[in-house]
């Protein structure tokens, strides 16, 4: 590190004052990349447990790794802890050959760790968000240290995509913890060990997480000595820190992204989110029993106006869970803005007697200025047709605690949500939020959608073994969603990150749930 860089680090530390963010002098001499890696909708600030990760996988994958991972373009899967794999023609058996690697404590990584992890992930008692998604796995075999064989009870075209988010965990460190105690274990935030390029150093509560380079990483010792994940209350605070030179990267809202255009010091990273935003109807609440009420939402909200005025045109209206042309039939209902039609549908359904103008809580975990403006615009449009929604914003852990709660939950705590779920790169991604088989506590069907036609459409698409017929199967999923409206689908928007031009070989992709994707943190560097 140059004298100029060290001086700059000291100056920043002085500006921050005597806080936990002030690092020892010896640490300041090390190369360090600091980012707001859990800022924005792809993050999950404060979560260290990958089994419970509904986001934050960009950061978790810096020190944990899955068997397979998407490339940075999100177009294909490639090996991570699995050096190669084969899938049987009938899609009922997957064989993985494992890479040679050690855990951060020096213990060997073996097939026993993979078997242990997948069994934990399948066990709903662990709080795993993958339990129902891995239902098709009937057995996990580890015939030797470098081989894992998964046998499936039925073809599952989405399984490899799901496995790209399942971080492999160390059996020797976790085997003595009872499955029901895994979720609340202090291990995750105090002494976790993974196989990734960086290893856990410390967590300072609500401030930052620090990782150090793993000298023995199989792809080579990382170029950078330390990576730090700073926590922020919102994206605006992160942007301020970025401009002040305190961090090197963060997610930003579209309006903030524009302010960095043409900057000599920063570069804007833009890409499709692969996330469909939706107004979710809690199907345990009888307000939404009549499909005409759900249709009214679609006609009442001027999605094109919101996309143009608030997203700056960087979003595409969604009339089902997908926008990719090959997945969307040409003859589905476009739900063009028509408030008069919305009023007529509500009148036909007897909305005045069902609810009238009584306020309806509209829950979300999106806490950005953009989301607030979007919800305010939709709130005003819905009010014009006689639907009175009241936004309620909470953090992600609180949101998850509300919508996943089992055992006499208060359904009226979330009759309506504004949320997002991945709709790619594998179209099977939204199955977890809509199939009857994915009802909590096993899955993420938090709106408790119980539609036999829709579940059957998903099952047929997941079980299709003929690649030439796959798109037609997913088109049928789209068609059923468009007709039944389990959600009022809104749009798929672009997302933005901003990185300092000092960063070299830094890769970030606006992936659903934050990824993971092959970002190769071991190559990240900082020019001085």
TrEMBL record:
Residue stretches making up the Solute-binding protein family domain: 77-409
An annotated GO cellular component: ATP-binding cassette (ABC) transporter complex
Tagged with keyword RNA-binding: no
Single GO MF annotation: peptide transmembrane transporter activity
GO BP annotations listed: peptide transport
UniProt keyword terms in alphabetical order: Signal, Transport
Cell compartment(s), UniProt: Periplasm
Signal sequence interval, chain numbering: 1-29
Top-level division of the source organism's lineage: Bacteria
SUPFAM superfamilies in alphabetical order: Periplasmic binding protein-like II
Cited InterPro entries: Peptide/Ni-bd (IPR030678), SBP_5 (IPR039424), SBP_5_dom (IPR000914)
PANTHER family in UniProt: PERIPLASMIC BINDING COMPONENT OF ABC TRANSPORTER, PERIPLASMIC OLIGOPEPTIDE-BINDING PROTEIN-RELATED
Protein family: Belongs to the bacterial solute-binding protein 5 family.
Protein's name in the database: Peptide ABC transporter substrate-binding protein
């Amino acid at each position: 590190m140059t004298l100029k860089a060290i001086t700059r680090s000291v100056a920043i530390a002085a500006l921050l004052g005597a806080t936990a963010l002030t690092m020892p002098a010896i640490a300041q001499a090390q190369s360090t990349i600091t980012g707001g890696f859990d800022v924005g909708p792809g993050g999950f600030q404060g979560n260290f447990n990958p089994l419970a990760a509904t986001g934050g996988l960009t950061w978790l994958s810096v020190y944990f790794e899955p068997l397979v991972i998407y490339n940075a373009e999100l177009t294909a899967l490639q090996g991570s802890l699995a050096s190669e794999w084969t899938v049987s023609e009938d899609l009922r058996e997957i064989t993985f050959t494992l890479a040679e690697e050690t855990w951060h404590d020096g213990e060997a990584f073996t097939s026993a760790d993979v078997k242990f992890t997948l069994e934990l992930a399948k066990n709903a008692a662990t709080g795993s968000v993958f339990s129902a998604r891995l239902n098709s796995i009937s057995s996990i075999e580890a015939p030797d240290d470098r081989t894992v064989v998964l046998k499936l009870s039925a073809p599952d075209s989405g399984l490899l995509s799901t496995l790209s988010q399942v971080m492999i965990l160390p059996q020797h460190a976790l085997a003595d913890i009872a499955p029901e105690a895994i979720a609340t274990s202090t291990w995750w935030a105090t002494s976790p060990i993974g196989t990734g390029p960086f290893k856990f150093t410390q967590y300072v509560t609500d401030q930052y997480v620090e990782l150090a380079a793993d000298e023995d990483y199989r792809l080579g010792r990382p170029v950078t000595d330390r990576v730090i994940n700073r926590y922020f209350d919102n994206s605006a605070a992160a942007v301020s820190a970025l401009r002040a030179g305190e961090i090197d990267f963060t997610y930003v809202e579209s309006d903030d992204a524009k302010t960095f255009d043409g900057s000599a010091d920063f570069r804007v990273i833009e890409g499709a989110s692969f996330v469909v935003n939706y107004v979710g109807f809690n199907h345990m609440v009888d307000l939404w029993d009549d499909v005409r009420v759900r249709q009214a939402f679609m006609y009442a909200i001027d999605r094109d106006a919101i996309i143009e005025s608030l997203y700056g045109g960087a979003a595409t209206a969604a009339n089902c869970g997908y926008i990719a042309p090959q997945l969307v039939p040409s003859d589905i209902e476009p739900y063009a803005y028509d408030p008069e039609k919305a009023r007529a549908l509500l009148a036909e359904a007897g909305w005045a007697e069902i609810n009238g103008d009584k306020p309806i809580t509209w829950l979300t975990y999106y806490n950005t200025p953009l989301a607030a403006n979007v919800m305010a615009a939709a709130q005003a449009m819905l009010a014009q047709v006689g639907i009175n929604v009241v936004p309620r914003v909470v953090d992600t852990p609180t949101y998850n605690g509300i919508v996943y709660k089992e055992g006499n939950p208060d359904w009226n705590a979330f009759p309506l949500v504004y949320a997002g779920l991945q709709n790619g790169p594998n179209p099977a991604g939204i199955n977890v939020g809509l199939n009857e088989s994915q009802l909590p506590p096993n899955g993420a069907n938090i709106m408790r959608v119980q539609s036999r036609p829709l579940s059957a459409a998903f099952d047929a698409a997941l079980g299709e073994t003929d690649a030439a017929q796959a798109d037609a199967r997913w088109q049928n999923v789209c068609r059923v969603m468009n007709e039944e409206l389990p959600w009022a689908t809104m749009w798929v928007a672009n997302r933005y990150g901003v990185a300092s031009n000092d960063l070299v070989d830094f890769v970030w992709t606006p992936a659903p749930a934050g990824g993971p994707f092959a970002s190769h943190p071991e190559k990240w560097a900082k020019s001085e």
